[in-house]
Write a structure and sequence with these properties.
Strand order of the largest sheet: 2-1-3
CATH architecture of the largest domain: Orthogonal Bundle
Helix content: over 70%
Number of helices: 4
Order of helices and strands: HHHEEHE
Shape: rod-shaped
CATH topology of the largest domain: Helix Hairpins
Radius of gyration: 40 Å
Strand content: under 5%
Length: 236
């Protein structure tokens, strides 16, 4: 029995390595999804930045057309100054010209403000483009690394399972069945060490006399609390 218990304990250590590798492998798709989502968000932000400065560019062109129209309007009004016959008409035209020029000044200020904003947004857009390209390349490298790692894990997991099964092949069918059942019920941990009267599977105290029996490794003993198979070794 001592040999079988020791073999089970060694198989359990390999089982823990398998669980660790499988957990890492299972997280790979999530990491890939997160990277794809990151790229998607970066692209969406880039498109928003582009849309904003394009809209401002349209507004600038619109105002420039308005400005050209108003300048033509002023020229036409100014040409009428030589045609009026009364001072009252002359003063009215001057006021109209003055109001149109004030409007033009405001439009020109708006155009300059728009140009500054557009220039600033274009710089931000170009900077975002560079960041997106760099991040895209980094993610492609990370994806390739992750894919290689997953393939490597598959190979390692396969090798570990062979080692585990080879160890368990010398264990009795009854003990193997108990091990497999506990492994499923106890999160992959069917066999655990004991230290200072404490089960290292559930960290509950076990009766002193039972602990003494466990240290002998002469018979199958299960934890009264978690039901895991107890095996004693002071080498760990």
């Amino acid at each position: 029995m001592e040999h079988e218990l020791g073999t089970l304990y060694e198989a359990q250590k390999i089982e823990l390595q398998i669980i660790e590798k499988e957990t890492k492998r299972q997280t790979a798709p999530k990491k890939l999804q997160e990277m794809d989502e990151e790229l998607k968000q970066l692209k969406e932000r880039l498109e928003k930045e582009k849309t904003i400065f394009e809209e401002l560019e349209k507004e600038r062109k619109k105002k420039e057309k308005e400005l050209d129209v108003d300048k033509d309007k002023i020229k036409k009004i100014e040409s009428k100054l030589y045609e009026v016959k009364t001072n009252k008409e002359y003063q009215a035209l001057l006021k109209e010209i003055e109001a149109a020029k004030a409007t033009n000044d405001k439009t020109e200020e708006d155009i300059l403000t728009l140009m500054e904003k557009i220039e600033e947004l274009k710089k931000d857009y170009e900077s975002s483009q560079v960041k997106l390209q760099k991040r895209g390349k980094d993610i492609e490298v990370e994806k390739a690394r992750l894919d290689t790692e997953v393939q490597s894990m598959d190979k390692i997991i396969g090798e570990l399972k062979v080692q585990r099964d080879n160890l368990l092949s010398v264990v009795s069918n009854e003990l193997r069945s108990k091990y497999d059942m506990l492994k499923v019920r106890r999160g992959g941990i069917a066999v655990t060490n004991v230290k200072n009267g404490v089960c290292l599977g559930c960290f509950m105290n076990i009766p002193p006399q039972l602990f003494i029996e466990v240290t002998k490794n002469k018979r199958l003993i299960q934890c009264p609390s978690c039901n895991r198979i107890l095996y004693f070794t002071d080498s760990e």
